[in-house]
Amino acid sequence: MSPWLLGLAVSLLAATSSAYGQSPTPATRSQLDSDLARATDIGGLLQVADRYAASGYQQEAKAIVDRAGRKARSPGDWQAISAAYLRLGYIDAANAAQRRARDVSR
């Protein structure tokens, strides 16, 4: 991982923790599914993805981030998606989202 991307990941992880007020706490699957059904925007989807991951549902979390990617339009959207992929450990997907952020900003 490039030093730039690593620095971005650390800063985004710190910002994410403080933006949510705390680390995501585990929830029941039915609670998560209800939250997912209500999530409509990219930020909401990524927040729910973090909660799925915190509860041990890694594949479901990635699918939600993928879904957010289908809605992404701005560089900021793609940067948030990149950070979500990094939190889940999907480095290649995070790098691809960063490239999309650069492409969209041109």
Secondary structure layout:
Elements: H1 3-20, H2 29-38, H3 42-54, H4 58-71, H5 75-88, H6 91-104
Notes on the protein architecture:
The protein is an all-alpha fold and 106 residues long. Helices cover 78% and strands 0% of the residues. It has six helices and no strands. Helix 2 (29-38) runs antiparallel to helix 3 (42-54) and helix 4 packs antiparallel against helix 5. The chain is globular, with a radius of gyration of 13 Å. It starts with a helix and ends with a helix.
Compact overview of the structure:
The chain is mostly helical. It has six helices and no strands. Helix 2 packs antiparallel against helix 3.
Give descriptors for this structure.
6 helices, 0% strand
Termini separation comes to 24 Å
Largest sheet: none
- The dominant shape is globular
Helix/strand order, N-terminal first: HHHHHH
Question: Could you tell me the strand content as a percent range?
Answer: under 5%
